[in-house]
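Long-time lurker, finally posting.

We've been working with NADH-quinone oxidoreductase subunit L (Dyadobacter fanqingshengii) and I want a structural starting point before designing mutants. I don't trust myself to interpret raw outputs, so I'm hoping someone here can both generate the structure tokens and explain anything notable. Sequence follows.
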Amino acid sequence: MSASLLILIPLLPLIGFLINGIGFKTIPKGAVGIIGTLAVVASFVLSVMTFQAFLAAGSQPVIVPLFDWITVGNLNIPFSFQVDQLSLLMLMIITGVGSLIHIYSIGYMHHDEGFGKFFAYLNLFLFFMLLLVLGSNYVIMFIGWEGVGLCSYLLIGFWNKNTNYNNAARKAFIMNRVGDLGFLLGIFTIITTFGSVEYLEVFSQATDFEIGDPVIITITLLLFVGAMGKSAQIPLYTWLPDAMAGPTPVSALIHAATMVTAGIYMVIRSNVLYSLAPSTLEIVGIIGAATALFAASIGLLQNDIKKVLAYSTVSQLGYMFMGLGAMAYSASMFHVITHAFFKALLFLGAGSVIHAMSNEQDIRSMGGLRKKLPITFLTFLIATIAISGIPPFAGFFSKDEILAHVFEHNKLLWVIGVLGSLMTSFYMFRLLFLTFFGTFRGTHEQEHHLHESPASMTIPLVILAVLSALGGFIGVPEALHGTHHLAEFMSPLYDASRQVNPSAFLPTELSHSEEYLLMGVSVAVALVSAIVAYVMYVQKASVPAPDSQPKSALQGLVYNKYYVDELYDNVFVKSIKTLSNVLYSFGEFFIDLIVNAFVRLTQFLAGLLRKTQTGSTGDYVFAMVLGMVIILFWKLLL
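Top reply, 14 upvotes:
Generated this for you. Predicted structure of NADH-quinone oxidoreductase subunit L:
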């Protein structure tokens, strides 16, 4: 495996960032789009070549050393890349979906005055994301982890003339720092425990620990705090819905397909440690289930097209963590892949609608768009069916596999998962029907300008629609007479986990009839929800009431997102601001007091010394002679 080709995968987006970042004011828009997109497409091609080379070489991880980096005492941290099944899957998602989003952005952002800067930021984000998944140790992962957080801040607040957008960017940055502190403490504990941060060394030493070892539990909990921040789990989830302030391609790339899945990647990468800590996995599963249900319930009454998708993302991430909690590592990765397809498609489809509606995002002002935007409608429909878990689309296979593992692990969590699935189907079909069916509810001017998006935007939609429809066939369960190619491909990643916790990797105890029953239940609730949404919003043509109309107590609670933001604002933000103001006033008083005391003392002494300056030559000669006499006496006496 060529080191020079491998290093080009993250290096090409970095070069694209440097070219567009330095010359964004002078490079023509057409060239900016081509440079930024080609950098990512070339990375995708190299990723495919690396994938093929790895398959030809075997299934063992390949370490590609680049240079010696940090050496402190016995601790050595090389700058090297690790190529294995997990990093290759993430490479394909990041560069593949990233390429489509870059192509889409050429059309979507064409009229924006910050076009060049936007592509520079996108390229920089991909560089850090690729660094995150390619690094062979936790420190390189942390560099990428922090880098994507920085780029998220830049892209969420891209339209920085809007104060609300700046606040959203700041909120995302600060909340991620809370999680990152836990992640950093986890890395320090790994260094203390294992004397290394290299994955292969840490995981090899970890096999000597007993299941439930307190040190391993501490490490996994701290790492999970980092995952909670980056992957928007309770209680660190509120930044992601606000992050919809960024341009829609940003939502598709960062907040659907790549950055928010970094926490999932980190847990799967550390599967040996988590397999040794079942109590941590219980916490992971419970928080995942709570997040999935909580966010799905909020999505039921949202009217901003991007906010619905944002809470959907939080909910789907909860499903992934539910799978991880049941040690269904491959199933969670399966859902990461399918979610990248259909959620990127949903966001890009929403962007196409917003583009046609002259930046209108309220679904109450839409309706009847399927005739004006046929390609957007058809692709959005496919993505809606996929996320709802209706066969044979991609989301059915991945979500069903997670629910099957969760059912074996904990029946209560499975019930929560099914309830979340019911809500997901309802709010997604509600979004589809209110946007594309019925009569148009916008202004006459908006209706006059309705048109399908250009080819640069619709071609990525079509490609993602195909992937959303067919992507699930990489993991067809045995009960449906298929082969789970993804699970077979990822199996070598769990060799050490099988060694330390073999009982967790025994074949499923579910019979085929039980699996069919579970599939039937999940599909039935999705179809029932879709039918209910159809009756309400198509047959009865219901439209959500305007914000000015009074709501019931329960509706108000859900519509206002359970007032979690207000709770955080009162408990944390305002209290910290008050404390800061007190400390500022306290510090200002004492600092001024000390400074003013020195000023007055200096003024007093200067006044005394000034009296010695008489201007008389005789006085100065006398002072000089007196000084000489004093010095002589000093020397003679001492």
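Before you design anything, note these points.
The mean pLDDT is 91.
The beta strands are 62-72, 75-83.
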